[in-house]
Amino acid sequence: MATVLHDTAIAASNNGSNINVYAQQRDGSVVEYTYRPDWSPDWEKSDFLPVAAGEAKLFTPLAANVERKATGPERHVYFLDKENRVRDKVLKDNGWVQGGLYSLTVDAAPFSRLNMYYPKLYYQTAEEYDIKCVEKDTNGWTTSSFAVAQWDEVLLGTGIAALADSVFHQNDTLAIEQKGGVTGQSFSLTASPHTSLSVLGDDTYLSILYTTSQSWLQELRITDSGSTTTKITTVAPRSDIAAVRIKSPDDDPDVIQVFCQDGRGDGISAYRYIAASGWKLKTQNLCA
């Protein structure tokens, strides 16, 4: 039986209150776990592998999203194949099938990370090491020659995160840069080199999740009243992180869940933020 790869990439997506988490297994396949709080308090492992062994390179980056369609929500997973080409799989009635990126021939750098903020999928290019994106519309995927961030501004192998109007990456001083939005800005965090990044927020807050050289998973939270940095947990030295924002149906603050390998075996652990109580361990050894 395949088990989760140590230092696996992690991806997460949500569809309402449901959360999907993806990780690579030691045989190279990618596994999916789903949490449906209205059905069960437990995570459910899918019987179907989004990415079969041999389709993705070992230690591939991962990204995921749920696309809303007239026929219902459609799950997508993104990865690099053994030639470092960006690929996607889509869940259909007959299982996971090849998505449209298969025929687009998008070459990423061997050390590229991936980030999906619909409709844009971001990656680091193979030639110039810029950060670029491919974009989804009703006619399928299109490439862009525009560099979101240029090579001389970007750390090779940088983590990548995005919001609707901006992209976040690490530069060669290890600061976190934001490109786009009203203005670009830099965040002088104590981030580890090549930290994984997750960024969430709205017009009331910005949450930047990253790791430090001391193997802490930390959050920088910025609001109108100022900024605070919180140590969430220690993690494995090269742990990836992925986070989802769960919007409240009323006016309550957002709930955030972040997924990481926290050194308690190779499984994925989930930590949850609730405004009233802060960060707490939610689930341990998911995907073990």
TrEMBL record:
Molecular function as annotated in GO: carbohydrate binding
Highest taxon of the lineage: Eukaryota
SUPFAM superfamilies tied to this protein: Fucose-specific lectin (SSF89372)
Gene3D superfamilies: Fucose-specific lectin
Keywords annotated in UniProt: Lectin
Keyword Disulfide bond: no
Pfam family, one: Fungal_lectin
Keyword Ribonucleoprotein attached: no
Family stated for the protein in its record: Belongs to the fungal fucose-specific lectin family.
Protein name as it appears in the record: Fucose-specific lectin
